[in-house]
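Exercise: predict the fold of this chain.
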Amino acid sequence: MSKVCAVIAAAGSGSRMGINFNKQFIEVKNKPLLYYTLNAFDKNSFVDNIIITAKEEEIAFIKEEIICKYKISKVSAIIPGGKERQDSVFNALKSLSGFDIVLIHDGARPFVTKEIIKSGIENAIKFGAAACGVRPKDTIKLKGENGFSCGTLNRDELFSVQTPQCFKYELIFQAHKKAFEQGIKYTDDTAVIENFGQNVYLYDGSYENIKITTPDDLIFANRIIEEKNLD
């Protein structure tokens, strides 16, 4: 049976939320957003271990106010994040040993489901790399430098990628290692692995699996927590 580790990227900020602290510490229904994310993986029987990447100055808070306070049991380490998200993920990957599958997930995406996690693991085992997502609801246009539309994309061929992004460990580790050695920067782990010739299987996520980014997202987050009775 494959051994699975979830890497939770939690070294975020609050700039687009209009706050001066990490948005993942915002409390919704009296609990930090990061709690809901960690709890989803901690309670999932398919996940064996959790690694968190975080700003060094926030590690103590995460340990005391989230992991210990809410008894999150699967977190084995909190790794100091790097300058960019890519650096943080690579730091986490370098710290791992003995895992077959790695799920890389945004700390600010708290509503990932058991089914999405399970499907990601199964597809990573089968295809080597997989990412969940949804089809865009809106028509997507290309905007030219002059502000005018210069084309309309076929919505049926588009896919809005979410996390977790799921990989065989050795594949994603070697891809990040090469990217680091070559000084190539990416904002997405699927892009890292695609650049080195690995195809990524895309499977269904959920429109509720949102990344909390703006104040409007918090309204949606409150509703989801109430409807699903998340603890």
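Check your answer against the key: The longest strand covers residues 160-168.
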